[in-house]
Write a structure and sequence with these properties.
mainly alpha, globular, 261 residues, 12 helices, 76% helix
Amino acid sequence: MATTTLNKDRARRNWFIVSSLVSKDFKLKYRRSVLGVLWSVLNPLLMMVVLTAVFSFMFKFPIENFPLYLILGQTLYTFMSDATQSAMGSIISSASLIKKIRIEKMLFPISKVLFSLLNFAISLIAVVAVMVFFHIAPTLNLLFLPLLLIYVFAFSLGLGLLLAALAVFFRDIIHIWGVFIMAWMYATPLFYPVESLLPWMMRVMEFNPMYYYVTYFREIALWGTTPSLFENFVCLLCAVVALIIGILVFRKTEKRFILYV
């Protein structure tokens, strides 16, 4: 009974810390901004307009409802990108706090991924606006959205934990990941049809987790189709593998963080 009470108190304390960290990040991001949180809606819309102009008129990809096709992939990929990059530096940026008090170190990358999820949720307003503009009626398949978010959240958290641990010991990983995440963006069909790829490129694409997550999002929001059991299995597998690896590496190295931050 005492152990159960202790665990509940620890869980409440950890949740309070995480929510405080997310609140602090939210306030810092939009501090002294005239439009504030509206930028989470305007950014994907503005990027959609620019990229639609480039890829609709210059490259002319034959994609129906291209703006929605684009913003769905763009917002989901941005969620993963922002989550992993912010989680990667979370331990280093919290060095002063880690050295002063005893605190669960994993809470820092978790708070960063949660903050990215919050921004993604706000950016969905832009997605809804595009759906309304192009008269794309929502279907019951949108009920799969929470499941997709669980997949992407777990996948991003796993990568974030791994990167956070590696960045403490190898600061070069911060610069390497910045280049890698950019290359990964172009390797994911965000603004081009996957059918335009050569056969060998399609085989490589099968090893890209973000390809499955982006396709999943488009199926439920754009094409109105139900994701198959295979798609759900692949998405779950990628998330679980990334999360297990991230937790194992983080737990194995966290005791030495204080010596390197």
